[in-house]
Amino acid sequence: MRTSYKAPIDYFLSEGRDNLRDCLSAAFSAAVRHHISKIIIFTAKGVGLRIALEEFCSLTEYEHLKLIGVTFPQGKIFKEKDGKEFTVDIPSEDAEFFRRSGVNIVRAHLPFDPISAAFAHHGILGQDVTMIGEALSIFGGSMSLCVQAALLACDAGEVVFGEHAISLTSDTAILARMAPTRQLLRDFVVREIICKPVILTIGKREDPFLPAADDVSIDLGKVAPKALPPGS
Questions:
Q1: Which residues pair with 39 in a beta bridge?
Q2: What is the mean pLDDT of residues 63-91?
């Protein structure tokens, strides 16, 4: 009787959008390998969804796969390093392209985001929930978004409770058993990590690791630990 199996996992040497096509490739391959019919893509501006439709779903081996888009809620505020606020959105022409392609976009409050109080001194509501996202960041900055995208897709009825689907961002992809947000801790299961960054250049501000082009293996012992502040 078999008690284990082996599956490939791709490790990226940095975080971010530069890994998007490789992440999509790994996710689509895993979907076929595991007979998965739905792929959930978290996207800020629609770039990943468009690439998935134009470069992957156009291929015979992937044309049966259903894509589901998840994005940030309306009005979510981000800040530049200098403190300047901005918002992100999917361009209208891309939104129309997705609609014509039969791709639904789920847009809702992220499960691990707190709720702002009316006045700053009143504190933050739901702060305990944000710690789930913080804990997931030990796997990479995008792991939290992968999980939240899957939860929102199930909340919206785009995937069925208990169904297996793949959820991905620009640099992380997981195969998971779906569950709605309210049943995350009881029923949501990450079956496989398909790909993820191994050097957390954004979330943990680690220095990029660039091995020589002819290296056949990666010696992570050479990765310099980030200097910790005094007293840590």
A1: 67, 166
A2: 90
Mean of pLDDT values over 133-148: 96
Residue 99 Cα distances to 44, 46, 153, angstroms = 16, 12, 16
Measured in whole angstroms, how far is the alpha carbon of residue 78 from the centre of its chain?
18
* CB of 201 closer than 8 Å to CB of 16: yes
Strands 104-107 and 66-71: parallel
Chain centre distance of CA 116: 24
pLDDT tier at 120, thresholds 50, 70, 90: low
Q: What single DSSP character describes residue 227?
A: P
- Global pTM reads 0.90
- Residue 9's pLDDT band (cuts 50, 70, 90): very high
Among 189, 196, 159, 192, CA closest to 12: 196
Judge contact between 48 and 76, C-beta under 8 A: no
Phi and psi dihedrals of 223, rounded to 5?
-70, 120
What does residue 126 show for φ and ψ, rounded to 5 degrees?
Answer: 75, 25
DSSP 3-state assignment of 130?
Answer: helix
Structure tokens at 37: 């019919």
Taking the C-alpha atoms of residue 84 and residue 217, their distance in angstroms, rounded to an integer, is 42
